[in-house]
Hints:
The protein is α/β, with parallel strands linked by helices and about 375 residues long. The chain has helices at about 25-30, 45, 70-85, 95-105, 115, 180-200, 205-230, 235-250, 260-270, 275-290, 295-305, 315-320, 340-350, 350-355, 365-374; strands at about 15-20, 40, 60, 90-95, 120, 130-135, 145-150, 155-160, 170.
Amino acid sequence: MTNAFTPIEILRPTVLEFGCGTISAAARFAERIGAKRPLVISDPFNAARVDMLALPGAVKVFGEVKPEPDLPNLDKAVAMAREAKPDLVVGFGGGSAMDLAKLVAVLCTSDVAFADIVGPEKVAGRSVALMQIPTTSGTGSEAGTRALVTDPVSQNKQAVQSRFMLADIAIVDPDLTMTVPKEVTAATGVDALAHCVEAYTSRKAHPTIDLYALEGARLVGKYLKRAVVDGGDREARAGLSLASLYGGYCLGPVNTTAGHAVAYPLGTRHHIAHGLACAVIFPHTLAFNMPATLAKTAAVLQALGLPERKTVAFDSAYRFCTSLGIEMRLSALGVPRDDLGVMADEAHAIRRLLDNNPAELSRDAILKMYEAAL
Ligand SMILES: NC(=O)c1ccc[n+]([C@@H]2O[C@H](COP(=O)([O-])OP(=O)(O)OC[C@H]3O[C@@H](n4cnc5c(N)ncnc54)[C@H](O)[C@@H]3O)[C@@H](O)[C@H]2O)c1
Ligand SMILES: [Fe+2]
């Protein structure tokens, strides 16, 4: 574990607008920078309400972002952007739209291929402005430097990380999340929680981030059930927007660990939504890691309002998820038993995350988690 002597670099969007009604900042920012050709990158739901951004100029919309976007989806967005030559790229949607917007912003002014920028800090620069507007409370992608795209051939999530993909302005208006359906609210809320918990218990955990991690977990504990029960609960939605943002603060400098590594094959191989995959795996990695990071896991459980004892950690984290209506059985989500071995191989190979897990997680231990979750 690290301490305050350990160096850390923290990057945040230049401007952050947070709170109900801040969507009006989108037009103000675009006008201030003199944007004439804004390009909005969005999923079909949000593409249908782009007018609410009131952007100036000849606005173009790529409205075909798919959940868990893959390379062909990215290629289509980049092709449109190279044609449209935007001066401002706006990510308007959940993590899927915001991740593609980051990549579009750095790829649209050059012939650089996606494969050449996979990994940390391979991007040479960015010459168009970038605005991020989340409409789910989960990924915190608006605050970060990372974008994830699935390669349909290798069935792996490819991660690009670059300081040039950080937004010039992030606008977090909780009112935009009021329409998120129950199941998506529950799953994306546990994704935000997983970002906080995994960063807090990571080998790379750092005191400058711990505060956000623990407060993010507390906000999810306080508000997620409320937002699932009543999607119109504005206070709960605002609390979750904050939790998601704090989760995003955790991702940049610290990042996730085993929970996300073990969850990834569920999305890439079986098209289970990212938040749902993280939720299914959450109790398994939390309980596995608890002996290696006892005090911190106890603090997380307390923040969630759950008992802090090791013996009941799995059961209470599991019940926390089922009480939100989340389907926790892999078999019910379409994952066949005969794929578990390959999934364990793939998860175990995600060293960029597993190497920071507080406890060594073997391929067989991952397989056992999948079997237990089946
Ligand atoms: N960059 C990062 O740091 C980071 C972190 C975590 C996850 N991710 C990535 O983000 C993606 C998942 O993002 P997500 O969980 O936000 O889901 P998403 O963006 O895929 O959206 C999920 C669904 O919700 C709909 N939706 C979005 N906003 C809505 C609203 N306000 N009302 C009604 N429907 C709405 C979308 O149309 C979509 O069908 C994955 O690809 C994941 O890998 C990125
Ligand atoms: Fe996540």
